[in-house]
Design goal:
The protein is α/β, with parallel strands linked by helices. 25% of the residues lie in helices and 26% in strands.
């Protein structure tokens, strides 16, 4: 599998985009920057979208993706997420007040966006991928994903604080090639990270002990205002050399 980091940060600035990972040009994981980070032609090529949770930095570009590709695709974008997250997105974003409801445009029978549910503990075949959805330590129906294709599996925790279930599930999966996770706040903001259910470098250092061993770890979601400090603190826990910091957008990794 090839993972393209369209956006890999926990905020937005001229140099940083919000979370969007694109697998093999077809499967999108979160939609924080998909409309602003790749061409419309590339956007049209996407078939399925996994949404981990409903925070704005993970869903904002659903609105512009639908607008950009309206009338240009034979099939809708299939959006896979928990029922709780779907409800939140449709109530607060795609509600004909903040943005048009593209689940009904151009018609209900031929929509631009179509929601399909995947819940905690479920495994579903999505295109050519087997997707395992696992609850993580974040808000409102948040999910992490383990994605398998052929002899390759990749873990995407997305936003989370210290968690356990996804690492227990990982023990049952063969051929894990990479782990994508997050560090959002400096160690000095430990309480804020705990309250908002994110990681610091210090808590990530403890989390690594739960992960499959000897697998490369890619850490994103760094907040733009703390980039230098976070980079230094992450480097201090990288004693095993497994950690790669997602520092630039539009970089691809092949597994």
């Amino acid at each position: 599998m090839i993972v393209k980091v369209i956006g890999g940060h926990g905020g937005v600035s001229p140099q940083c985009r919000a979370t969007s990972y694109l697998v093999d040009d077809k499967l999108l994981i979160d939609a924080g920057s998909v409309a602003t980070g790749i061409s419309v032609k590339e956007q049209i090529n996407i078939d399925n979208i996994l949404i981990s949770h409903s925070h704005l930095d993970h869903i904002s570009d659903l609105a512009f993706l639908a607008d950009n590709c309206f009338g240009l695709k034979d099939d809708p974008f299939y959006i896979w997420t928990s029922n709780e997250v779907q409800t939140s997105i449709q109530k607060h974003l795609l509600n004909d007040e903040i943005w048009p409801d593209f689940t009904k445009l151009p018609t209900k029978d031929d929509p631009t966006l179509k929601f399909l549910n995947i819940e905690n503990g479920e495994t579903k075949k999505i295109g050519e991928y087997t997707v395992h959805a696992i609850k993580v330590n974040h808000f409102a129906g948040s999910l992490g994903f383990i994605i398998e294709k052929g002899d390759c599996a990749i873990i995407f925790t997305q936003d989370t604080g210290p968690t356990n279930a996804i690492w227990q599930k990982a023990k049952t999966i063969k051929n894990i090639k990479a782990i994508f996770s997050e560090v959002s706040f400096p160690n000095s903001y430990e309480q804020l990270a705990k309250d908002s259910r994110h990681h610091t470098a210090q808590t990530m250092g403890l989390e690594i002990a739960k992960m499959p061993k000897d697998i490369p770890i890619y850490l994103g979601h760094l907040k733009p205002n703390y980039l230098d400090q976070l980079t230094k603190e992450i480097e201090k826990i990288n004693t095993h050399g497994r950690i790669n910091i997602i520092g630039s957008e539009n970089k691809s990794y092949q597994f």
